[in-house]
Design a protein that fits this description.
The protein is α+β, with helices and mostly antiparallel strands and 464 residues long. It contains twelve helices and 17 strands. The chain has two domains: 245 residues, FAD/NAD(P)-binding domain (3-Layer(bba) Sandwich), CATH 3.50.50; 158 residues, Elongation Factor Tu (Ef-tu), domain 3, CATH 2.40.30. Helix content is 32%, strand content 16%. The strands form four sheets. It has a six-stranded mixed β-sheet with strand order 6-2-1-7-17-16, with helices on one face. It has a six-stranded antiparallel β-sheet with strand order 10-11-12-13-9-14. It has a three-stranded antiparallel β-sheet with strand order 3-5-4. Helix 1 packs parallel to helix 10 and helix 3 packs across helix 4. The radius of gyration is 22 Å and the shape is globular.
Length: 464
């Protein structure tokens, strides 16, 4: 049987390879690192996390990304399995030790009898004799392949900046000023309700900090000047420029946090740091992706109370992401309409976030395997998080005149709406303030039930 060729060994490519191989199809996974390196990656490991180490909320009943976690686990996701096995404390989120996570994904794919890993760059379009290809090259697609895709499709690529947050050595944080607490003391999958380190500011400190961010020297990217930022991952100084209170209503919001040494004194703003490795020796600055020059980062971030002597394991940076015009180019099987032997998966399709990227790889791998086995596989229902992502990237946004296609994280707004329940399970009338949460739970339960039915139909088709 001819193999499925998967180009790109990131989250989406690794997941696609796993799904196809688990279906019994031989897979060749092509990863260009270390033959050709990128501006953001630091290792040659598969599924390397180049930005945050967080997969975000793990609450499957009240958070859309938590729902996506649950759906992917139900589909036998390699990424979720490796994430669960290598988690670090992160409050209500699922965060991982990035090195151990990548090592686990790499080891499992290297050991799989149906997977061959080739370290090579695919420069240009895949050879004609590759009858089934998944392009999962992510936001850092090699220039040669990106240009070939553009020439084949006749479409302009849409691109945006994506910024990386700094990582701090935990031992250099002054815990006489900082304290450990998760927002609202909420425990996460790792069971720790004090997973974050918090650095508080009063009003004067905050306003001086915002001004320093605005005034600080920024890296210049002359070739990219007209490329828009992705709204879900704005550099911290760009948020500062949008208004004095933007940060304290965003990544520096103080709600649900209080220094236990002076609980009566509410902070004006709070910088949170989240554990980045299993040893607990590294913490990343949550929401502090930046394009400030490195010397300015050190100077400005050391004005944060508790970080005056901070030592940085990695400073922030900025890289360019590229994604295709998926509503025009892809069908609902993620196939390129102009050349159906090629599928696209991951962030290059116009989803944003680690988990969303892996989810598109999961779907592309299953679609490609089903096609190779000679049976059809419909996308999951749009009532599920997986189906909603397919709907987003192939939903004809541009064709329907709804504005330009932009990257999107999973959110309940992508799923078909439901009326908010007015009563709880016991029949008691819900207060208006609780109906939104109850609505999310109802949508999640519907999604999980519909996904289970979809998986059941897939298993039935496989057995015939």
């Amino acid at each position: 049987m001819d193999p499925i060729h998967i180009i790109g060994g990131g989250l989406a490519g690794s997941e696609a390879a796993w799904q196809a191989a688990e279906a019994g199809i031989p897979v060749v996974l092509h990863e260009m690192r270390p033959v050709r390196r990128t501006d953001a990656h630091q290792t040659e490991g598969l599924a390397e996390l180049v930005c945050s180490n967080s997969f975000r909320s793990d609450d499957a009943l009240h958070n859309a990304v938590g729902l996506l976690h649950a759906e992917m686990r139900a589909c036998g996701s390699l990424i979720m399995s490796a994430g669960d096995a290598n988690q670090v404390p992160a409050g209500g989120a699922l965060a991982v030790d990035r090195e151990d996570f990548s090592a686990a994904v790499t080891a499992r794919l290297e050991a799989h009898p149906k997977v061959e890993i080739r370290r090579e760059e695919i420069a240009g379009l895949p050879p004609e004799h590759w009858s089934s290809v998944v392009i999962a090259t992510g936001p850092l697609t090699s220039p040669a392949l990106a240009q070939a895709i553009l020439e084949r499709t006749g479409e302009d690529a849409l691109s945006f900046f994506d910024a990386i947050a700094p990582i701090v050595h935990a031992a250099s944080i002054d815990m006489d000023k900082a304290w450990r607490q998760s927002r609202y003391d909420k425990p996460g999958p790792a069971g720790d309700a004090a997973a974050y380190i918090n650095c508080a500011m009063d009003k004067a400190q905050y306003e001086a900090f915002v001004q320093a961010l605005i005034d600080g020297p920024k890296s210049e990217f002359k070739d990219w000047e007209n490329v828009p930022y992705f709204e879900g991952c704005l550099p911290v100084e760009v948020m500062a420029e949008r208004g004095l209170d933007t940060l304290r209503y965003g990544p520096m919001k103080p709600v649900g946090l209080a220094d236990p040494r002076q609980p009566e004194r509410r902070p004006w703003a709070v910088v949170q740091l989240r554990q980045d490795n299993a040893l607990g020796t590294l913490f990343n600055m949550v929401g502090f992706q930046t394009k400030l020059k490195h010397a300015a980062q050190v100077e400005i971030f050391r004005t944060i109370p508790g970080l005056e002597r901070a030592e940085f394991a990695r400073l922030g940076g900025l890289h360019r992401n590229t994604f295709i015009n998926s509503p025009r180019l892809l069908d609902r099987q993620l196939r390129l309409k102009a050349e159906p032997r090629m599928r696209f998966a991951g962030q290059v399709t116009g989803v944003e976030g680690y988990v969303e990227s892996a989810a598109m790889g999961l779907l592309a791998g299953r679609f490609a395997a089903a096609e190779r086995l000679g049976r059809g596989l419909e996308p999951p229902p749009e009532t599920t998080a997986l189906g909603a992502l397919i709907g987003h990237v192939t939903g004809g946004h541009l064709l329907e005149g709804k504005g330009s296609f932009q990257p999107m994280n999973i959110n309940y707004g992508l799923l078909p709406p439901m009326d908010a329940p007015r009563h709880d399970e016991t029949g008691k009338k819900l207060p208006a303030a609780e109906r939104g949460r109850a609505k999310k739970k109802a949508m999640s339960l519907r999604a999980l039930a519909d996904l289970d039915a979809w998986l059941g139909a897939e298993r039935l088709a496989a057995a015939e």
